[in-house]
Amino acid sequence: MYHYIRDKSKTYPYYNSLQKKKFIAQVKKFSKTGLICSLDELFSQNNKYLLTFDDGLKDHIFAAEILKKNNATGIFFIPTLPLKKNIILDVHKTHLLIGRFKGSEILSELEKYLIKYKIKSYINSKEKHHYKTAYENQKDEDLKKEFKRIMNYYGDLELKKKILDFLLKKFEINIKPKDYYLNKREIKHIESLGMIIGSHAESHTLLSRLNYKKQFAELKNSKTFLEKIINKNVDTFCYPYGGKFSYNHYTLKILKKLKYKLAFSVNYKDISFKEIIKKPFELPRYDCNLF
Prior knowledge:
Helices cover 46% and strands 7% of the residues. By secondary structure, it is mainly alpha-helical. The protein folds into 2 domains: 20-86 and 182-290, Alpha-Beta Barrel (TIM Barrel); 90-170, no CATH class. It is globular. The model has no long low-confidence stretch (mean pLDDT 92).
């Protein structure tokens, strides 16, 4: 599972990303064992690698072209709200903040905001307990991980956008969606290279926090929107944030109802042939940060 694949620049000094030359080196290394050339190979009990890319970032044009040169295919999971509404997703606003500033600075400004507007119940204590282990395997400083947990796992969903927009303005971060995400033409280009386009829901909200109706809209609308772009069925999905906490029995039921074939989570182990057959909506993936 890959996200940012880019070299350091003055435009995006915000976070650690995988340098392009390192990505090329990884692809070459994987090629020695074998990279999957079509999704059918996933069902053939081989030991080849399947590379996946989340969030529909501009970086993924480069990744797709490298895979093409190596006669391989990958799955590119795209959230659709940036395309539909020309916005930066809340998850990426959080990335932009923690990549440039200390967790203590951001949490301090968040606390000031909550005090100023007399918001006393921003954090859901029940969800805080339920999602307390989120990001425990990541290397970020503890306060940055706490800010991510608040924004993504147990802060009030209705207030999150307003708070993040305030923080971006406070810290003078101004990134345009067109410079951050793939557009329709670029998605078509990636698909034309033999890559697979998958859904990453609409808004990249933690699905397990949503009721059945909202989850259904996230999974259906994104699928339909992407199918119109590439004029093909979209039947692969990956859960925003990944892991067992990121989905529930509603999600699994909806995936089946909407005729998705495969769904990927984040669980650090190899995919077994048995899992593909018996649990096609709970397939594990490795995070490239482990490599």
